[in-house]
């Protein structure tokens, strides 16, 4: 999954100066707020996966959560960094699109749904074609950037008023 970032000019310097004035209390406040915004971004990604009907399994949806091996979640306190993503190999393919190769998939049809079964003698043949991506990550990032900008302005004003 591609890593994207939001750069705010002067933010580090402002936080550094406020931190000196508050004996580090602002740093702790900012770290808590940053983690909360990370959870908000995860929620936006999950909502976009659902809205765009990206997959009908929950593996991709659940890969955007904090705490298991398929997740990328990193918060660094001193560097003020938050990384969010998925280690699933197909997460970027579902977002960006990809070429599907011609191949046989073993399994069974139950009505209109196909169930994969590696030991089945029956199955389906996939044809080579371009699978369009849904852009769930890109949409979530655009939504989050708008939310983040307003939330940061409010939070900075709150911190300035408090400290």
Automatic annotation (TrEMBL):
Top-level taxon in the UniProt lineage: Bacteria
InterPro entries for the chain: HK97-gp10_tail (IPR010064)
Identification of the protein by name: HK97 gp10 family phage protein
Lineage, uppermost ranks: Bacteria, Bacillati, Bacillota, Clostridia, Eubacteriales
